[in-house]
Amino acid sequence: MTTPTAELAAFLRTRRERLDPRDFGLPPRRRTPGLRREDVAELAGISVDYVVRLEQARGLRPSVDVVEALAGALRLAPDERAYLFDLTRQRPRDDGELAIAATPPLARLVTDLSPLPAMLLNHRYDVLAWNPEMARLLVDFGTLPPARRNAMWLCLMHPLVREFYVDRETVVREGIAHLRAAWAAHPDDRALSGLIDELTGGNAEFARLWAEQDVKVNGRGQKVVRHPEAGVLTVQFETLRPVQDPDQLLVIHRAADERSQAALDRLTRAAAPASAPTPARSASGGARRP
What we know:
This protein has 290 residues and is α+β, with helices and mostly antiparallel strands. It has 2 domains: 4-87, lambda repressor-like DNA-binding domains (434 Repressor (Amino-terminal Domain), Orthogonal Bundle); 104-275, Beta-Lactamase, CATH 3.30.450. The protein has helices at residues 4-17, 37-44, 48-55, 64-73, 78-87, 104-112, 132-137, 151-157, 168-185, 190-202, 204-210, 258-269, and strands spanning 118-122, 127-130, 220-227, 231-240, 248-255. The chain has a 5-stranded antiparallel β-sheet. Strand 4 and strand 5 (248-255) form a beta hairpin. The longest helix has 18 residues, at 168-185. The chain starts with a helix and ends in a 21-residue tail after the last helix.
């Protein structure tokens, strides 16, 4: 039976053997393909003996730094790098390329999902793109400063959105539990830390719930909302994480019953073309939250 240790050994060996020494300014090898173990050890800044033991499946578990060094030395593609981290049961550090704008194909998908209300978020709950139906259901994001297009901030601080959810306590609690999980996964994200600090210092409800240490990632559920025009309606939501852009979250809403569907239909018919989905730069791109 294949084990992670054996697979790690085979993966490192095959990745090493596929490399052309000439790409590293080294003379080609006549008898065996690829780089020597000595070459990989020098490139990664580790001992030759360590490389040998890894390739012989001797049960080592490399540190995050060693895994990162090996990925660089072996010139691994992003998917291969992620696979190497999975094999070693390590988690890569943030590479600094977190989503601050909607990926164009995903922004178009948000458009194509009409008449279903849909929006695109990043892990901080920054709203990156939306369609007219989403703007009619929740709030017209286009009228907000980019620094305030954040679903968590809106739920806590916006005067209209604050009263939007009938079961407000549950919605806020679940949102904060998701935000805590995102914070643990992205500890170096200064924008996320800044948002948490702002809400902790400026909102007693957030500070109280944040201190409870709840952690939960809720990708599917149902919410009862109190809409100023459509009245009370119930919507189901589904959150999808694209494989190609895992830092972006596609949130799709549907009516939960016939009465809610009729209310949603009235809203979507009134959705103005001017509110077309707009990829929105989030407040995290170096901008300071006011």
